[in-house]
Design brief:
By secondary structure, this protein is α+β, with helices and mostly antiparallel strands. The chain contains eight helices and 20 strands.
Length: 348
């Protein structure tokens, strides 16, 4: 069992504003959970609290149903993979991977077996005699992973491990880490600011803002049923348009749309994903502002009801200075203007 439980977790510095503000979260045995949010939201701090590298202000942390608040970091049976790789430059790949085992007084035979097993799993067998300066960024990251997995820890903590890699390497390493998780069958807690990493890697995504959890759910639930306007805007490409609801009718650029009866009258914010801007039945013409090529599709930018919006369209979609949009009520999300909450949100 490698379950991690955070109860009423709080972290503040000098008794000032809470960096982590009363977080409650259960991470199940063998689950791959991704903590995602913008810089300063507290995601890396949570990893450091779980690992014991920082003391909590209040609350409780459990690993394997054991409270670890006062347990020394080396005794928590956790492996931490950092953004910076943190390899010893004077040591070979073999020595870097073996270092933690030597500190724990493993026999030479055990160390050799574990290092070679890890090297095989990460395609490092031909690099064991090289120094870190002779490796690419992707190879260095695999060495950092190897140093972690030889210990066979209960929990892996990963703090933006791919952020220093170029785009192609990030894609490769995402797959590498997912394969590693499947093979090791242990608990992974992974921090990133990249929404693509979060959606493609996590069994569950935890979205954080200002030290609070905004939503914790599966990638599909996060994408299709965002709890509030922050989540909707953070994951995917969502357009937000302010409208006035009059007894179930709203108007966007002169076209009426009829929305559910349980949406309150008055000002609300409508959300429509960029890929849904040409999939409905009701046509609206917008003036094309900027066009971006993104490979197999285009992003087209324009304004609706004074709001800056975008649409994802295939290369074959015809347009000029004027863009024909096709909107549908079924593709709309409805957010409370005051709280930002999804008015029709229903938890799984």
């Amino acid at each position: 069992m490698s379950k991690v439980v955070l109860k009423n977790l709080v972290k503040s510095y000098d008794g000032k504003k809470n960096i982590i503000d009363n977080i409650n979260l259960e991470i199940n045995d063998r689950e791959f959970v991704v903590l995602v949010g913008s810089s300063g939201c507290g995601k890396s701090t949570i990893l450091r609290l779980i690992s014991g590298l920082e003391d909590i202000t209040s609350g409780e942390i459990y690993i394997d149903e054991t409270k670890v608040n006062n347990v020394h970091p080396k005794d928590r049976d956790i492996a931490f993979v950092f953004q910076s790789y943190a390899l010893y430059p004077h040591m070979s790949v073999y020595e870097n991977i073996a270092f933690g085992l030597k500190m724990r007084k493993f026999s030479k035979k055990e160390i050799d077996e574990k290092v070679k097993e890890a090297a095989k799993a990460l395609n490092l067998e031909e690099l064991l005699n090289r120094k870190p300066k002779e490796l690419s960024g992707g190879q260095r990251q695999r060495v950092a992973l190897g140093r972690a997995i030889v210990r066979n820890p209960k929990v892996f903590l990963m703090d933006e491990p791919l952020s220093n890699l170029d785009a192609n390497l990030r894609v490769q390493m995402r797959a590498e880490i997912k394969r590693l998780h499947k093979k090791l069958q242990t608990t992974f807690i992974y921090v990133t600011h990249d929404q693509t990493e979060a959606l493609t890697m996590g069994d569950r995504i935890v979205i954080l803002d200002k030290g609070k959890i905004q939503q914790a759910a599966t990638p599909s639930e996060i994408y299709n049923n965002p709890k509030n306007i922050f989540v909707a805007g953070f994951i995917g490409q969502m357009n937000f348009i302010d409208v006035n609801n009059e007894n179930g009718k709203i108007n966007i650029e002169g076209v009426d749309f009829f929305i559910p009866d349980n949406i309150p009258n008055g000002e609300i914010t409508v959300g429509i994903r960029a890929e849904k801007m040409i999939s409905g039945e009701k046509c609206i013409t917008a003036k094309t502002d900027i066009v971006e090529m993104t490979g197999g599709e285009r992003n087209i930018y324009f304004s609706l009801n004074g709001a800056k919006c975008s649409a994802k369209v295939p290369l074959s979609y015809e347009f000029n200075d004027n863009l024909t949009l096709r909107l549908s009520e079924k593709d709309m999300y409805f957010f409370d203007k005051e709280t930002g909450n999804n008015i029709l949100y229903e938890a799984e």
